[in-house]
Design goal:
6-stranded mixed β-sheet; Nitrilase/N-carbamoyl-D-aminoacid amidohydrolase; globular; 2-oxoglutaramate amidase activity; Putative amidohydrolase; 14 strands
Length: 265
C-alpha cells in the first residue's frame, strides 16, 4: 500500500467489449491478446462479469481462487498493472457478484456487489460493505453497475483523509436505460468532487439485452476526459492527476458543507 503523494499521476484504461456468453476461456483469451497491444497503463478496468456476460445461471461460477482470478493475477504481473473486473464467485454456500482489484505484486482486494438489480437476487447474495482501496497516492472507491443509482451509497466524505478520489463503476448497463448511465456518471463526479471511471459492455447477451457501451472517464468538474464509441469494442485511456483534483477541490470546497449521516448496509 503506497503512501499518499499529492503529485501522483496514474494512467487508467477501460476495456469496452462484447463478452461471449458463458465462455470464460474465450473471453480471457481475447482479453489476453488485447492486453498485449494496449498502451502501458497503471490500471485496466473490465466490465461487470467480463468472463461470462451478465449470466444469472450457475454456469461459470468459480471458487474464490478460481481460474479467472488466477488469470487476472497473471495479467497484472505480466503487464505490471492493476486489473479490475467482476466474476461470479461461490463462497460459504452463497454466490456473489465479486469485483476483484488485482495488483501486480499479487495483492488482491474484493468487493461484493451490494445493490442487486431485478432478478439478480435469485442467484446472487448481496454484499454488505463498501470497498475503498489506497493505491499510489489515490483512494479508489470500487462498485458495480446498479450501485451507481444510489447517491447516499456513493456519497463522498469529509475530511479529506476519509474521502475517495476515484469512483470506478464496472457495468452491464443495457441500452434502454443508457441515458441514466450517462447522467448518473456525470452527477457522481460533480457532487463527490472525484474522478469517475465507468466501464460498460457492448453487444447482445442471452437475456436478449442489448448494450451500447458509453464507457467513459469523467473529471471532478464534469468534463468527459475519454469516451468510447457507441456499440463498438474499444479501449479508452485517461490520466488521473491528484494535483489537479486537489486544486479543483480547493476552488470548490463543497464536500465540507455536506450533510452528516450514517450509512447502514
Amino acid at each position: 500500500m503506497s503512501t499518499l503523494s499529492y503529485n501522483s499521476i496514474l494512467h487508467i484504461a477501460g476495456v469496452q467489449f462484447a463478452p461471449e456468453w458463458e465462455v470464460p476461456e474465450a473471453n480471457r483469451d481475447y482479453l489476453a491478446q488485447l492486453f498485449n497491444t494496449m498502451k502501458p497503463v497503471d490500471i485496466v478496468v473490465l466490465p461487470e462479469m467480463f468472463a461470462s456476460g451478465f449470466s444469472l445461471t450457475k454456469n461459470c461460477v468459480e471458487s474464490n481462487n478460481g481460474e479467472t482470478l488466477n488469470w487476472m493475477k497473471q495479467q497484472a504481473s505480466r503487464h505490471q498493472q492493476v486489473v479490475v473486473g467482476s466474476v461470479k464467485v461461490a463462497e460459504n454456500g452463497n454466490i456473489y457478484n465479486r469485483l476483484y482489484w488485482v495488483q501486480s505484486d499479487g495483492e488482491v482486494y474484493h468487493y461484493d456487489k451490494v445493490h442487486l438489480f431485478g432478478k439478480e437476487d435469485s442467484l446472487i447474495e448481496a454484499g454488505n460493505q463498501q470497498q475503498i482501496i489506497d493505491f499510489q497516492g489515490f483512494r479508489f472507491f470500487v462498485q458495480t453497475c446498479y450501485d451507481l443509482r444510489f447517491p447516499v451509497f456513493c456519497r463522498n466524505f469529509y475530511p479529506e483523509s476519509e474521502n475517495y478520489d476515484v469512483l470506478i463503476n464496472i457495468a452491464s448497463w443495457p441500452k434502454p436505460r443508457i441515458a441514466h448511465w450517462n447522467a448518473l456518471l456525470k452527477a457522481r463526479a460533480i457532487e463527490n468532487l472525484s474522478y469517475v471511471v465507468g466501464v460498460n459492455r457492448v453487444g447482445e447477451d442471452a437475456n436478449d439485452w442489448q448494450y451500447v457501451g458509453e464507457s467513459q472517464v469523467i473529471a471532478a468538474d464534469g468534463h468527459v476526459m475519454a469516451h468510447a464509441a457507441l456499440e463498438q469494442s474499444e479501449v479508452i485511456y485517461a490520466e488521473l492527476d491528484k494535483g489537479k483534483l486537489l486544486e479543483h477541490r480547493k476552488q470548490y470546497p463543497f464536500l465540507k458543507d455536506g450533510d452528516v449521516f450514517d450509512l447502514k448496509l
